[in-house]
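Hi team,

As requested, here is the filled-out complex form for the adenosine-5'-triphosphate run. I kept the field names the same as last time so the parser does not choke. Let me know if anything looks off before we queue the next batch.

— J.
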Amino acid sequence: MSPHLQIINGSILEGGGQILRNSVSLAALLQKPIRIENIRAGRSQPGLKSQHRTGLDLVARIASAQLTGATNGSTSVEFKPGRIELPGSWKADTVTAGATTLLIQIALPLLLFQTPKSASSSSRPSVLSLLGGTNAEQAPQVDYTQHVFLPFFRKHFLPPIKLEIKKRGYYPKGGGEINLCVWPLLPGQKLRAVNLVERNRLVTIHGLAHCAGLPRVVGEGMSQGAVKRIQEWGNKNGLSIADNGVAPAAVAAATAGGETKNPVLMDINVKRETNGSTKGAGSGIVLWAEFENGVVMGGSAVGKKGLDPSQVGKSAAEELIKGIEAGGCVDEWTQDQIIIFMALAEGKSQVRCGTKDLTLHTRTAIWVAEQLTEAKFEVKQEDSGHWTIHCEGTGFSMSG
Ligand SMILES: Nc1ncnc2c1ncn2[C@@H]1O[C@H](COP(=O)(O)OP(=O)(O)OP(=O)(O)O)[C@@H](O)[C@H]1O
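And here is what came back:
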């Protein structure tokens, strides 16, 4: 065994690919050689899939690392990081419909800290060109990353990031393409801690129902299913939810006295990709709710053959409503995706989650962060019933 090789047990808690992604990102930044064993032991087909291998290879290139054992199905890899490259252009292809957004998950922490040689070259971003799936299940749909995760990230942690969807890629063919531009931090600069314990009034619900290689009615059906469910929920909860600025009959009646109680604007667009612009057919919907103080929460669903589009829209709405009703400042997906950044940020972060226990993904991300960094996490259930994540971050930065 190589000296000082830290072993990470990939079967802990969630036992999925996120352990691999978070471990390798942190190992690269902190210059720690690691071996990850029992990779994805918690999944029905354990070991590396094409998308995980692609992510490892991408990070190995950015971090000039030595990577061994990264073959399809492998349950153990070694990663010995070298010097993190300067900002540049990187391309990665999952080959399958594997999620490009999970490639963002593994690479983003490194891209933030690709310290330019001098402050004058700081305007140069790194550009990731990622090929594969864009709207799959069990991973963020690219529109979720675009409209929920990145707005949160930019607001709280600081660095500017731009995501462009060039082409959608659906299961099983993939073939999508996205570009991510990340402007790295300056030498010595640190991520800010997050302090998010209040959630104000719900003001808007946006959404996008997308489809390709299928008639537009599929997108319209998903949108209508979501609108119907959200308005039913709004009516029950004393919210006047106006669809695209037009008050529905029930809302108009409720507000007939001239006084509009808790108005919420809803705008769910339908986008049908042009013929031939995607490799295969597919559909999905992503919804996001914005609150007065900038809190954003999402809900999504992917269309499937034989599934009524309005049911797909309804299940995205159910997911969004579940998140809103839980009363936290982040939804269940953003919850685990911010842990690595809380660990790297400077000072105390605190984020209020819902009244439901933290997700297993979140507990796993905390476990990984504690294995590889000095960050200290504390998870508490408040008197209100909400779970709050507290973290004393490490204030990581790169020297010039
Ligand atoms: N519907 C969703 N919306 C947003 N993010 C999601 C959604 N589903 C899963 N995610 C995120 O995707 C990541 C999946 O991590 P996981 O460990 O399950 O990956 P994996 O094992 O590589 O996945 P798979 O077994 O599908 O290959 C987590 O960060 C989770 O929050």
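Two things worth flagging: The mean pLDDT is 92. Residues 14, 16-18, 40, 43, 49, 102, 138-140, 144, 300, 333, 336-337, 361 surround adenosine-5'-triphosphate (CB under 6 Å).

Thanks,
J.
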